[in-house]
Design goal:
CATH class of the largest domain in chain C: Mainly Alpha
Number of strands of chain B: 2
Order of helices and strands of chain C: EEHEEEEEHHHHHHHHH
Oligomer: heterotrimer
Largest sheet of chain B: 2 strands, antiparallel
Largest sheet of chain C: 5 strands, mixed
Chains: A mainly alpha, B mainly alpha, C alpha+beta
Helix content of chain B: 55-70%
Radius of gyration of chain C: 21 Å
Structural class of chain C: alpha+beta
Strand order of the largest sheet of chain B: 1-2
CATH topology of chain B: 3 helical TM bundles of succinate and fumarate reductases
Number of domains of chain C: 2
Radius of gyration of chain B: 22 Å
CATH superfamily of chain B: Fumarate reductase/succinate dehydrogenase, transmembrane subunit
């Protein structure tokens, strides 16, 4: 029997799963619900200067890259396997789109973080 | 196996036939919301790199009712992901005993949920006040 | 007068020589507070329709023969009681994800002839010892590492529960993978190397998406989901060449 290459994708899925289990709910709540309506979150919390300062710092860059990349890899793995659960046999095309998409998102994020500078 | 004409039952709609499977599909489906949210953040990063006006445009778009609705649904489904993640995490643990007793699954699950709560508090405090 | 009531039992019927497809047939079956679903089936066969065909043996949840789908859930029919379904009806079908041979009897050969043998379900001795060396010694800690996985009665409820097995029967499946772990984790066994080819394959642990229903339905609390998923960690470490640091002699 052929050895599966799943360990690579499963590791990324697992890392993304832990990170999203820890951070996704609060990030969604803050950026998507309470900051836009100004509830328990003042106007200036997500102001340009503040967020830019965060993205300038190497810790900020690492966190932003980790969040976007690992969330995408976690979702790619689940969506790809979910297609199989739904009876859709999409094969290598689906695999390339899913993980390729996550990789593209990772590379774009890294590039933007570089562009943003220090 | 002898030459008997066996009947193979179809798998169509398998997950709709048992509430356990419906919950499983919701858990898996949460990843769609997570992916879209990650892309929203990616667009935010792009707007951040394009200057203050672009960034404020992104912030303004987040106030749109469709966006608020999406984020409510995302919060619910991704929250369910977080809950189920910690519930199944003990299944990856080896069977080792500590002080002669099996480590209770609730320790890992509870620890994980506390970690989510703790991380959430930390993030909120940082965004709000620091 | 005893508290005898009747309940409707609806059974899947399939005669390969006559039917193109299965159909359902209903029977009214008398029951008391301790009548099992199996006894309901036996009543039908003894008094109402002798042609009803189904497997059973011990009547006490240890032989693993009587697995059926009861109202859509995999159960041991000797271990499930009609009183819990009354006044609703009880729908009995063959275990899911297996071909139906006749009525409630499934073709189990994929498990017994292919999946189970493929994982080498026997101790492959770590070291060859002569009889004169005496018996193996095993500490309670060593025993604990595999004990729960040794409780499997091969009833196949977990295969009926597993949608991945239903969608792709190539998957080795919960019970076989749990038994694989049982031997890998046994200190007397050579361990990892003996069974890693199957374990590391797509048909091995990587066919599982942790639906977790297998562990829900297991009547012996084997927890196959745990056997499989802890081995995803091991398989990953093996893939990246670091397993040998955790399992120096390939043992469990």
């Amino acid at each position: 029997m052929k050895r599966s290459h799943e360990p690579i994708f499963w590791s990324l899925f697992g890392a993304g799963g832990v990170l999203s289990a820890l951070l996704a709910p609060i990030l969604i709540l803050i950026t998507g619900i309470i900051a836009p309506v100004g509830l328990w979150m003042p106007e200036h919390a997500l102001a340009y200067e503040r967020v830019l300062a965060f993205a300038h710092h190497w810790i900020g860059k690492a966190l932003l890259l980790a969040v976007i990349s690992l969330f995408l890899f976690h979702a790619a793995h689940r969506i790809y396997h979910g297609l199989h659960d739904l009876g859709v046999h999409a094969g290598t095309g689906a695999m390339t789109t899913a993980y390729g998409g996550a990789l593209a998102g990772t590379l774009v994020s890294a590039y933007l973080l570089f562009l943003i500078g220090f | 196996m002898a030459q008997v004409k066996t009947y193979v039952r179809p798998m169509q709609g398998w997950w709709r036939k048992n509430p356990f499977f419906v919950r499983y599909m919701i858990r898996e489906g949460s990843s769609v919301f997570l992916a879209i949210y990650a892309l929203i953040l990616l667009v935010g990063l792009l707007r951040l790199s394009q200057g203050e006006a672009a960034w404020n445009g992104w912030l303004a778009a987040l106030t749109h009712p469709v966006s608020i609705l999406f984020h409510w649904l995302a919060l619910l489904t991704v929250g369910y992901h977080a809950y189920t993640w910690w519930m199944v995490a003990p299944k990856t643990a080896p069977n080792i005993r500590f002080a002669g007793r099996e480590i209770p699954e609730m320790l890992i699950t509870g620890g994980g949920m506390l970690a989510t709560l703790g991380a959430s508090v930390v993030v909120y405090v940082i965004v709000r006040w620091m | 007068m005893t508290d005898t009531r009747t309940i409707e039992i609806e059974v899947l019927r399939y005669n390969p020589e006559k039917d193109g497809e299965p159909h359902f047939q209903s029977f009214e079956v008398p029951f008391t507070h301790d009548t099992s679903v199996l006894q309901g089936l036996q009543y039908i066969k003894d008094h109402l329709d002798g042609s009803l065909t189904f497997r059973w043996s011990c009547r006490m949840a240890i032989c693993g023969s009587c697995g059926k789908m009861v109202n859509g859930k995999p159960e041991l029919s000797c271990h499930t009681f009609l009183r819990d379904y009354y006044p609703g009806k009880v729908r009995i079908e063959p275990l899911n994800h297996f071909p139906v041979i006749r009525d409630l009897v499934i073709d189990q050969s994929d498990f017994f002839e292919k999946k189970l043998p493929s994982i080498k379900p026997y101790v492959v001795p770590k070291e060859e010892k002569p009889l004169s060396a005496g018996t193996y010694l095993q500490s309670p800690e060593q025993f604990h590492k595999y004990y729960q996985y040794s409780q499997c009665i091969n009833c196949l409820l977990c295969y009926a529960a597993c949608p991945q097995y239903g969608l792709k029967p190539d998957f080795t499946g919960p019970a076989a993978l749990a038994l694989m772990h049982r031997y890998n984790a046994d200190s007397r066994d050579k361990g990892w190397d003996v069974r890693s080819e199957v374990l590391n394959a797509e048909e091995g642990v990587w066919g599982c998406t942790l639906v977790g229903y297998c562990s829900e339905v297991c009547p012996k609390h084997v927890d196959p989901a745990r056997a499989i998923n802890q081995n995803k960690v091991n398989s990953t470490m093996d893939y990246f060449g670091v397993l040998k640091f955790i399992m120096p002699k390939g043992g469990g």
